[in-house]
Each structure stands twice: as structure tokens, then as C-alpha cells.
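During the reporting period the student researcher (J.K.) took over the structure-prediction task from the postdoctoral fellow and processed the backlog of single-chain submissions. One of the processed entries is reproduced below for the supervisory committee.
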Amino acid sequence: MPDLKKTPLYDLHLKLGARIIEFGGWLMPVSYTSIIEEHNTTRNKAGLFDVSHMGEILVEGERAHDFLQKMVTRDISKFDCNKSFYCCLCNPMGGVIDDLFVYKFNDKKFMLVVNASNVDKDFGWLMKNKDFFDDVTIINISNNIAKIDLQGPFSEQIINDSFDFDFSLLKRFDFIEKFFFNENFVISRTGYTAEDGFEIYFNSGRAIDVWNRLLKCGKDLGLKPVGLGARDTLRIEACYSLYGHELNENINPFEAGIGFVVDFSKDFIGKEALLEAKRDLKRIVVPFELLDKAIPRFNYDVFKNNRKIGLVTSGTFSPTFKKPIGLAILDIAEADVGSLIEIKIRGELHKAKIVERPFYKYKGKLNK
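J.K. obtained the following C-alpha cells:
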């Protein structure tokens, strides 16, 4: 598989016995022991994730703030410096080009953290819309950046010991830019697991050193490497979207159930289409639990009264709740909490029930 990319930690994953899969054009560890064990380790202790496949794009210049106001769905002016926030890049029809995190250093410097499979598309979209912002510079720095996520109840203690710094000073979505070990780091209190945790960005040449340091400092607290398999089960329990599943260029943020990322108080690409979509919402992503013993998967048909009403966007067996769960995009008239639906799995219909979002609530440190 010569065309697939590898993170700086690829060889180390092999030494740790990881099972490798293709994901978004990358060779990535899906698990080291088992998905259930790694999931529970993250929920109860701490997990370490190599997510260096994610993309990072710098947007800098005198009018960087104005440019991104046009491009993303949230109002950047409402966020302080050294805050990160979740939002979307939308096309003129309101479909999602990508969901991303924006790191606001100041009004002249931002870092966009984008999905691995969308890096080139996102960069091209930004460049295409830069015509009237000659003083804005857009740089794809993904190839030079490693990203490691530390997630779980013990993550603050582990990162404090690893970096000899008091990270209790950071609230959720805060980040710092600081030199550690003679290297520049950006570290945020964010994550994709619904646990407390930190996302660590730094020069890719230091990836092995940082990974091993974190594992060593977290050993006595039960820190273990965790692959993409548990990352997926963790995010499904939290009802977090995955691009290509709950979001794509034909699914808008309101349909995906993340309308909170859209701020109509300012202008941005896709605003008019999203105003109309909100007024006339025809379908929506909802969580469900399966009442039979079967596992729902992506693109399985959903029925009610022998009529197809939608598709499963994500499905799994929940290690936390020990039952099959999932997300599905359904006709909005059939999407009420408590409603019974049926999932077609291997030619048979299995009963399911729509439930409240999320299955698992965020357990980390909230802003005050």
C-alpha cells in the first residue's frame, strides 16, 4: 500500500502490537489489545491516541479575522484569544465541506484543525475564497505537525507530571502556546471522547519522545495506547459527529443536530441556504438504541411501519452501556424521542428506540 501515509509513530505502533487499518488515506492503529478494553481504559483511567493524521492549517495576516468570519459558521469575535471552538466550513448550499476546530491565538493568527481526508479540499476551498484578502496568508503545516491526544479522568495528573506545568489553569476549550523541552507546543483542553483531556500539537520530529514520555509518566495511573476503534465507540456514545457519516456536503449542520455551530448574527458562506434549511428542516440525525441482539452499521436502512424513513450514519456496541447503539438520519416527522423504529440488518428488521442525545455526557472540566 505505497500510496498510504504513515504518522511519525507508525513503527512504534507496530512494536506495540497494534492492528493497522487504512483510514482517510493513512495507515493507522485501530487497536492494540481490544476496542472494548481500550474504550474502558479511557473512560476509567486514561488513553493515549496518535491522531497525527489530522490536518493543521495556519491562517495569518492583518485581516485573518475578517476572512475566517466569512468562511466559518461561528462568530469568531465572540471568542477570546487562546480559545478553541468547534464549527463548520459550508458550501453555498449549506452542506458541510468539513467540521473543524479553530484555535484563536489573536485576531491575526488562527490554526484550523481539520479532518485528515479533507486537508487538501479544505485548503483549496480557503484559497479559492481568498480573492479580496491579499494580506492573508494560508499555510498547510500538516506534514510538520504531530498530534497526540491524552484523554480520561487521570489526564490532568499525567500531563502535569509529563510537562511539569499546572494544566488545571486551563478550562475546557482553552489552549496555551508554550515552549517545553526546547520545542514549541500548542496544548488545548479538548477532545473527542466526552472525557477530560488534552490535545497536544508539536513538531513531528519529537513525536516518539513525547509519546514515550507520556506513557512513562502515566504508567502507574493505567495509561495505555488507544486506537481508532475505541476513538469511534467513545465518540458515538457522546453523539459527536464523524465527517462522512453524520456530516458531508449534502448534510447541513441543522440536519446533523449541531445547529449550535451556526451563528446568523454575521455573514458567512452558506448563510442564506442555512436560514432556509432551519425554517424547513426535513430530516435530522438522532441517537437510537437497538432492542434486539444485533449491531447497526453505517448506511443500514431504517424503517417504520414498513416504510423507509432514513439511514444509520454510525453504529456500534457500546462498551459503557453494554448494548448496541447508533446514530441515524431520519425524516423529521419520525424522529421523536421514544419512537420505535426498525433497522434492517442482514435482511432482517430489528427493533430500536430513539433516545435523548447524548448517550454519555461530558465528564471533563467545564468552563466557569
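The committee noted the following: The CA atoms of residues 11 and 208 lie 10 Å apart.
J.K. will present the remaining backlog at the next meeting.
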